[in-house]
Amino acid sequence: MKRDQRMEIRIGGTGGQGLILSGKMLAEALSSMGRRVAQSQTYEPTSRGGFCNSDLVVTEGEVDYPLTSALDCLVLLDRMAVAPSWALLKTGALVIADTRLCPETPAGDCSVHQLPLTRTAIELGSERVANIVALGALAVLTGICDRGALERAVRANTPKSFLDINLDALAEGYRLGEQTHRAAATAA
Fold this sequence. Notes:
alpha/beta; globular; 40% helix; Pyruvate-ferredoxin Oxidoreductase, domain 3; six-stranded mixed beta sheet; 6 helices
């Protein structure tokens, strides 16, 4: 990432999916690497089921405007996040969409990767770690974050009783991201 380059990321879905927590973890990891990060969130007044997103603006220098306006990366953990997010995508943006809860995305000039985020989380033992699976995949597909920094942020922000499953979810996210990256390189 160049000094003056700005990267905008949205993790979108519904309330109760841990989107704000995963945004906080990513922001902490990036900050520990010396990047400047502004993190914000939007959520409907319902605690579960309403639209929710966590946005990050990442730069090497000063953050000149702390809110997203043109997304470089969009993670979709539920189809409810498509409508409020799709129009903000930059040309060529990266989109990671869950195959189960967001099986279809609109057409657009972006790179869409359908990944089994919630299915992988369920196989690990809890659908609630889909956000952590997504973080691992996002880190690989964007190259934005060092694996060690992200793992430290997950460790620091996870209750002890959920640490093992969250670390397993992060590892599975990395595996999915690496698998997707290899498949895209082979296709090119």
